[in-house]
Amino acid sequence: MILQSIRMAFESITSNKIRSFLTMLGIIIGVIALVVLVSLVSSASDSVTEQVSTLGTDMLTAMVIDDKGYPLKLDDLTLLESNSVMGQVAPLTQTVVTAKHGYIEEPATLYGTLPAYGEIHHWRVKYGRFLRTTDVDNNSYVAVLSLEAADKLFGQANPINETISLNGRNFKVVGVMEEDTSLMSAMTTSIKIYTPYTVVTRVSNMRGGISNFIATSSNPKSMDEAEEAVRAFLTKRLKGDEDAFFVFNQSNLMDVVGSVTDMMSYLLGGIAAISLLVGGIGIMNIMLVSVTERTKEIGIRKAIGAAKRSILFQFLIEALVVSLMGCAIGIGLSFILLRVATLAAGGLITFYLSPQVVLLAVGFAIAIGVLFGIYPAYKAADKHPIEALRYEG
Fold first, then answer.
1. How does 227-242 read in b/e, with b if 16+ C-beta sit within 10 Å?
2. What distance in Å separates the CA atoms of residue 334 and residue 29, rounded to the nearest whole number?
3. How many other CB atoms sit within 10 Å of the CB of residue 91?
4. How far apart are CA 178 and CA 208, in angstroms?
5. Distance of CA 128 to CAs 99, 137, 267, 363, Å?
6. pTM to 2 decimals?
7. According to the model, what pLDDT value does residue 144 have?
8. What does pLDDT average to in each consecutive run of 10 residues of the chain (393 residues)?
């Protein structure tokens, strides 16, 4: 019975191709709007989430605004790191220098930190090594270059164990980092060079203490205890003044990004769903016209013994087939549009067709077909056979 109804539905649809296509057009546009808009937001949010994750979502960033005349030292951070809820702690200070190798000079940002800084950020070294504890303890004049710094200062030559000049002081190059594609790197215009914290404070004549540091938790799944430990430590260290410092839990950043992108998905999905409802109204309108045109056919079928539910089922299947055919065309066109959008983005973002969005579109199409097909189908099934046979149209 189902196969027979589907066959009859296709015969009815193909008997008037232009009208059937125009009926599907509302569903096609609605599906394209739903799939493309939600996929664009989903793909863009994944790209943003990936970029945000490169900043480190399992760490705390602390900034001392007013040290109250008692600047933080490395020993203070060592004391904080000894807390059982804390993982690693690393300071970060920076200054602008002129990097020189041979006849090449480039402005650069010189960062002073500890080996733990690279471990917290999960950085990878392309050549050589990153900073070591002995470099910090011995105040070694060693430098780790970003890939961009190595390219600009050395070109294709191997920089390992070579010497560069930073504001007139010689540093031995011990490592080159992998290419940094993070969001923070894109916001930085100058090349980056990393040296031991103790060396940078000497080179830049910094007399103050540590004003910025990052930290991780001993339990990566929960940063709250570590955040409370850092706040308690700084509050005690800075004479109880909670306004003298700022602590940011970067795990909260992912929650904010997720809530914003989810809201956008729901909003655009709702707008697209309205388009599908308009398409459903078009299906109902054409199905009512079809019922009127086929009144005599309905009368003949009832006269030879067709059950009411058989008539209802036939017209309902027809509405459902129209809706699903429009959905299939819409999904196919959506795939093409997303491929075009990916090419237009120049590889910065890959827009993909999510299986969940496809299932959502199919679910909507089925719901629209049933919802807007049930009334015309019921109207066809409820016709009296004698009156239907007398109908002249």
1. bebbeebbeebbeeee
2. 10
3. 24
4. 32
5. 19, 20, 50, 55
6. 0.60
7. 93
8. 65 74 84 83 71 65 84 87 89 89 90 89 88 91 92 90 91 88 56 90 74 85 83 86 83 69 74 77 80 72 71 80 88 90 77 84 86 81 67 59
Calculate the alpha carbon distances from 3 to 28, 54, 160, 261 in Å.
25, 54, 73, 43
**Cα 34 from Cα 30, distance rounded (Å):** 6
Tokens of 184: 């923070």
Confidence (pLDDT) at 322: 85
Q: How far apart are CA 145 and CA 195, in angstroms?
A: 9
**SS3 call for 3:** helix
Burial of 181 (0-12, 13-18, 19+ CB in 10 A): exposed
Locate tokens 């959502």: which residue?
Answer: 360
Contact between residue 353 and residue 300 where contact means Cβ atoms under 8 Å apart: no
Residue type, 339: R
Place of tokens 């480190």: 56
Cα 308 to Cα 324: distance, rounded to the nearest angstrom: 24
Confirm if 357 and 42 have CB atoms less than 8 A apart.
yes
| Distance in angstroms (rounded) separating the CA atoms of residues 389 and 117 | 86
* Amino acid, single-letter form, for residue 252: N
Q: What is the pLDDT of residue 356?
A: 84
Structure tokens at 298: 């309905």
Residue 250: predicted pLDDT: 73
Q: β-strands 191-196, 169-177: how paired?
A: unpaired
Rounded distance between C-alpha atoms, residue 297 and residue 389, angstroms: 8
Structure tokens at 177: 């980092």
**Nearest of 116, 122, 117, 86 to residue 217 by alpha carbon:** 86
